Amino acid sequence: MNRLGLAIVIALLVTVTAAARATLEPEAARVGSVRDPAWLPSGQALRTTAMGQRLLLADLYWLRTVMYVGESAMAPRRGWDALYPLGEIVTDLDPRFGYAYQVVGSNLSGLAHQVELSDRILEKGMRNVPDRWMLPFLYAFNKFFYQEDYAGAAAYARRAAEVGRRPHLALLAANLSLLANRSDEYDAALGFLELSLQQESIPEQRAQLEQRIVKVLTFRELDRCERAVAAFRMRTGRRPWALDEVAWIGLLPSVPADPSGGTLVYDPFSDTVRSTRLGARQPLRVDR
Fold first, then answer.
1. Which residue has the higher pLDDT, 185 or 197?
2. Predicted confidence band of residue 70 (pLDDT cuts 50, 70, 90)
3. 74 lies in which domain range?
4. Would residue 269 count as lying in a domain?
5. In sequence order, what are the beta bridge partners of 272?
6. In this structure, are residues 109 and 87 in contact, taking their beta carbons and an 8 Å threshold?
7. Of 103, 211, 212, 219, whose Cβ has the fewest other Cβ atoms within 10 Å?
8. Into how many domains does the chain fold?
9. 280 bridge partner residues
10. pLDDT tens for each residue of 252-273
11. 24 in a domain, yes or no?
């Protein structure tokens, strides 16, 4: 069969397939729209049949992935079921596409709350792009923020420091290895969040990170006030009436400002310190 005949056959197959798909699932016929991940092909199968155009196909599916993230962020009720399969297709077609692992991995944990799948795509990325430091860094972030695995977080932060030659990450890894109390945990969380924010370009994910930074800063101040109140009770044998009284006897230099924009207050009846905007301090862990 000559080239013209082959081209005609391929065109007919594409037309028939598109028509059948439109009949079975009308929404799937919308250009650039991804609804049901069951309709997505296998990345390995595409790679086998790409006829030398796998990088072009990778770019095509990357554009679909970016569009899908934007659509899902604007309409969260749609869910994120297709994000991991899209990431698999892109990185099967182009295993060295480091930024794809980074974006899909961070959004799977940060926006989709699918931490196990985030770990899986990041592990794949670390195997295929071992020289990209953001991948072990994001993996360390997952270990610290979602899985409470400080040792694992320290190990991968250290790996990110070695790959990226970033001394501040080596310091973060050392601090993670020595976590002993809540204050250390908040400092480590801020280190992760601030660096993640510097690297993030997707607006929805940046907003999530900024909100978390404010929450961690607020919880750190609440923790400091709680410790000062406990010291007040030990010294005086009673509860203070307000944080001002704690500051008056020198256990706080002053009543701290509330990073969330509210006011930090102490309730002597419930013996709790809270932010008028965010409430009482809660566990730092992020629910999945």
1. 197
2. confident
3. 40-237
4. no
5. 267
6. no
7. 211
8. 1
9. 274
10. 999 999 999 999 999 999 999 9
11. no
Query: 265 forms bridges with which residues in the sheet?
Result: 274
Is residue 33 pLDDT above 60, yes or no? no
d(CA 105, CA 108): 5
- Residue position matching structure tokens 């391929």: 10
Cross-sheet strand order for the sheet of 272-275: 264-267, 272-275, 279-280
CA dihedral sign, ordered 231, 232, 238, 242:
negative
- Reading the block at residue 153, the tokens are 């977080």
- Tokens, residue 114: 């699918």
Q: Give the chain as a DSSP string.
A: --HHHHHHHHHHHHHHHHHHHHHH-GGGGSTT----GGGSPPHHHHHHHSTT-HHHHHHHHHHHHHHHHHHHHH-GGG-STTHHHHHHHHHHH-TT-HHHHHHHHHHHHHTS--HHHHHHHHHHHHHH-TT-THHHHHHHHHHHHTT--HHHHHHHHHHHHHHHT-HHHHHHHHHHHT--SHHHHHHHHHHHHHHHHHH---HHHHHHHHHHHHHHHHHHHHHHHHHHHHHHHHHHSS--SSHHHHHHTTSSSSPPP-TTSS-EEEETTTTEEEETTTEE---SPPP-
Give the global pTM: 0.62
Q: Looking at the domain assignment, is residue 20 inside a domain?
A: no
Least confident range from 58-72, 106-120, 143-157, 166-180: namely 166-180
pLDDT tens for 83-124 read: 999 999 999 999 999 999 999 999 999 889 999 999 999 999
Give the CATH number for residue 151. Answer: 1.25.40.10
Beta bridge partners of 35: none
Q: Is the pLDDT of residue 167 over 60?
A: yes
Alpha-carbon span 266 to 46, nearest angstrom: 61
**For residue 245, what pLDDT is reported?**
96
